[in-house]
Design goal:
alpha/beta, four-stranded parallel sheet, about 15% strand
């Protein structure tokens, strides 16, 4: 992993196994439902529910500072805690990384290979919940430089910006809306001018990230290069946060923003 621009933001399964009992490390398993976690999670991990802890009823990201301070505090996290994110869904680690960086948390890392690799290596799982001592967490206001907003997307200039849709090809082509056929007034398709590059293409078969050279080639062949600003989006900002992480922290692109409003917001604009 040393070839990445910021290798320190990734941990491998052996590193995590060696730090399971480190009091300054907090492991977060993030998913849309608790079933995988309840069936067995990495020892010491706390479950966060993406549906209820991350998203509002309209599927936009919940970026309320007080809500996040409560969630982090109830999870026993301080401003100095090393937070490790993983999940059963490939984008989860990158999403958690983006969210915590958005609020200024200094030491957050992604488990390379996520739950898939941990399980494949027959590493320990437990159904026991850890004992947590709540803390008082103090957040910084959300960093707007990590986000793209709807006017940024409306007015992006192709000469210096590339807009990247990281959803499935079926979503990009309008066959699916949030992974199912459009219902009622739901509008499917993609934002005009966006190129398509499925986010999971950044991963090997075991769920680990491809090498620096492989990633550089993959994105470069699609015109996503360091000299341009990259705005990434998906359905609700989760999968695009994963691509944001790859571009900014693994490849070292200087100007990458996640349009977390994504297709959920864009598709509801009448014009």
């Amino acid at each position: 992993m040393s070839e990445y621009a910021h290798p320190e933001v990734l941990v491998d399964t052996q590193w995590l196994a060696d730090h399971l009992h480190d009091p300054n490390v907090r492991i977060i398993e993030l998913d849309m439902n608790p079933n995988p976690c309840n069936a067995g999670h990495i020892p010491g991990a706390i479950f966060w529910n993406m549906s209820t802890d991350m998203l509002l009823p309209n599927f936009s990201m919940n970026l309320d500072t007080a809500t996040w301070e409560k969630l982090l505090g109830n999870s026993g996290i301080t401003n100095d805690t090393t937070v490790i994110g993983y999940g059963d869904f490939p984008a989860i680690g990158g999403l958690l990384f983006w969210l915590l960086k958005l609020f200024g948390h200094s030491d957050v890392r992604v488990l390379n290979g996520d739950r898939r690799k941990w399980v494949a290596e027959n590493r320990p799982l437990t159904t026991e919940s850890p004992t947590i001592t709540p803390t008082q967490y103090h957040l910084q206001p959300p960093d707007p430089s990590l986000r793209a907003f709807i006017d940024d997307v409306r007015n992006f200039n192709k000469s210096d910006t590339v807009l990247v849709d990281v959803r499935t090809l079926e979503e990009y082509n309008g066959e699916l809306f949030m992974m199912q056929p459009p219902q009622g007034n739901q509008r499917a398709g993609h934002i005009p001018g966006a190129i398509h590059l499925f986010y999971e293409l950044a991963l090997n078969n075991d769920g680990t990230f491809k090498s620096y050279n492989q990633l550089q080639k993959l994105y470069g062949e699609h015109g996503i290069t360091k000299d341009k600003q990259a705005i990434v989006y998906c359905a609700v900002g989760g999968r695009s946060a994963h691509t944001w992480f790859v571009l900014k922290y693994l490849l070292g692109y200087p100007n990458v923003r996640n349009y977390d409003g994504s297709w959920n917001e864009w598709s509801q604009i009448p014009e």
